[in-house]
């Protein structure tokens, strides 16, 4: 068995389970379509892989020895996710999807969400703490493999959002979906921080 197989299983589970970026990709895809949501997918995945690389190169030591930095990141992340949740929950609803004037978030917003969200940092710390030493793989390889695992997982969430469009034929249904996604997104930040 390859020493990287346990890491690949971990990367899959960490990437496919619901989290703020997955919910954001799903919500964006339901509203704006898959193509318009690709920056969120790639921005979030690149940032997650970047965190694995940064932690592997030593940033994890700072987080472990300076818990106040992790606390500030946690509060900033919860506030950012609350703002994004509010934006989704209060988004403009139009009968004609082409008439919507709002624009989807870009790669930078998704990347920032990863940087200030505690879940990706926890994942990165686990990758380095557990899998870097047991597999003997360098940080850059683990980051690359994590990226290659995260992209299809995030694309699946965006595809699920695209498929929900078939159920969201009315403005009322779309408003309920946006409200649910907004509450889940904001709640995920606070649950992660306070839970």
UniProtKB/TrEMBL annotation:
Q: Which UniProt keywords apply?
A: Cell membrane, Membrane, Transmembrane, Transmembrane helix
From which domain of life does this come? Bacteria
Q: Which Pfam families match?
A: LysE
Bilayer disposition of the protein: Multi-pass membrane protein
Protein source organism: Halopseudomonas oceani
Name this protein carries in UniProt: Lysine transporter LysE
Q: Where found in the cell?
A: Cell membrane
GO cellular-component terms in the record? Answer: plasma membrane
Q: What is the lineage of its organism?
A: Bacteria, Pseudomonadati, Pseudomonadota, Gammaproteobacteria, Pseudomonadales
| MF terms in GO | amino acid transmembrane transporter activity
Q: Which InterPro entries match?
A: LeuE-type
Instruction: Set out the biological process GO terms recorded for this chain's protein.
Output: cysteine export across plasma membrane
Enumerate the transmembrane spans.
41-64, 69-86, 139-162, 174-193
Which stretch is the leader sequence?
A: none
């Amino acid at each position: 068995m390859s020493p990287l197989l346990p890491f690949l299983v971990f990367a899959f589970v960490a990437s496919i389970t619901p989290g703020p970026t997955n919910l954001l990709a799903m919500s964006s895809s339901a509203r704006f379509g898959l193509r318009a949501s690709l920056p969120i997918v790639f921005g979030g995945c690149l940032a997650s892989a970047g965190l694995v690389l940064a932690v592997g190169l030593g940033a994890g030591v700072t987080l472990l020895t300076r818990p106040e930095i992790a606390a500030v990141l946690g509060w900033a992340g919860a506030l950012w996710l609350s703002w994004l949740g509010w934006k989704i929950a209060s988004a403009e609803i139009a009968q004609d999807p082409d008439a919507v004037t709002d624009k989807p978030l870009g790669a930078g917003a998704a990347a920032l969400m990863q940087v200030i969200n505690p879940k990706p940092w926890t994942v990165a710390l686990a990758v380095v703490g557990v899998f870097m030493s047991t597999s003997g793989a360098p940080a850059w390889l683990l980051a690359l493999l994590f990226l290659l695992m995260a992209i299809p997982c995030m694309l699946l969430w965006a595809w699920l959002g695209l498929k929900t469009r078939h159920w969201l034929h009315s403005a009322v249904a779309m408003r309920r979906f946006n409200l649910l996604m907004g509450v889940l997104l904001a709640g995920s930040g606070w649950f992660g921080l306070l839970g």
